[in-house]
Amino acid sequence: MKKGWLVINSFVKHDKFYELYRMLLASAEKKGAVLELKTTTDLLFEVDNAFDSLEKPDFVLFWDKDIYLAGRLEHKGFKVYNSARAIEVCDNKILTAMALEQAGVRTPKTVVAPKTYEGTGYNNRLFLEKAEQILGYPMVVKEAYGSFGAQVYLVQNRQELYALVDRLHHKPFLMQEFIASSYGRDVRVNVVGGRVIASMLRYNENDFRSNITNGGSMGQIEITPAQARLAIDACNAIGLDFAGVDVLFGPDDEPIICEVNSNPHFKTTYECTGVDLSEHILEHVQSHA
What we know:
- The protein is 34% helix and 25% strand.
- The protein is α+β, with helices and mostly antiparallel strands.
- It has 3 domains: 3-81, Rossmann fold; 89-106 and 181-288, D-amino Acid Aminotransferase, Chain A, domain 1; 110-178, ATP-grasp fold, A domain (Dna Ligase, domain 1, 2-Layer Sandwich), CATH 3.30.1490.
- Helix 3 packs across helix 4.
């Protein structure tokens, strides 16, 4: 019987996250594994002697974005899923865009804002004029860090872009071309172990973002081989064992990667398709532990 840890954030207490934890714990029991819940505070140790006093599990299912802790666990020989590097890339939309581009995975045209600093901000707008020449309007602006579409914006002109950048202060962000043919809709493709397990259509008639949290709806869909291949390629490019991949519809319905999520919120996929992704994740992790 394999033994593992389910590592979760110590401070996030939302019910929607605990629903996922319960599903993962139930699937572990169903699959014959012992899965122990650990918070990031439970694993608070001095750096030099980290985790030496603990019995090492067969695997660590890391359901958080604390890349420092995940990296320290890996350094001590723990088998962590997803890896610290994969979580880091997915958590930062700039790193995601770079990893996908370098692997030849199609994404919207992207311009990364130059780095600035707290107290300085973006006090030179020349880079914004260059970005608008490349991308045009409308333009999608994404903060490097954010979840559930909350830090993603659609600007219609230079005035809106400047006002948004003023509000961002020193936060890192990127700018992308707006894929008008995918307004308010995309496909969430759930991949585990290099295979597509379940997919659903997400759509919102009142917002360019399709996120369910922002009022979007969901429906069943049979994805195309091209959509499946691109989602798998995106996971391989980042080094993910499992992920939720958001795929846009190009002008001729060709797939374009929007985002990749290392800790996908799969409860909505279960409600839409009846497929419990947690079972497939546990099977994959146990088979590789």
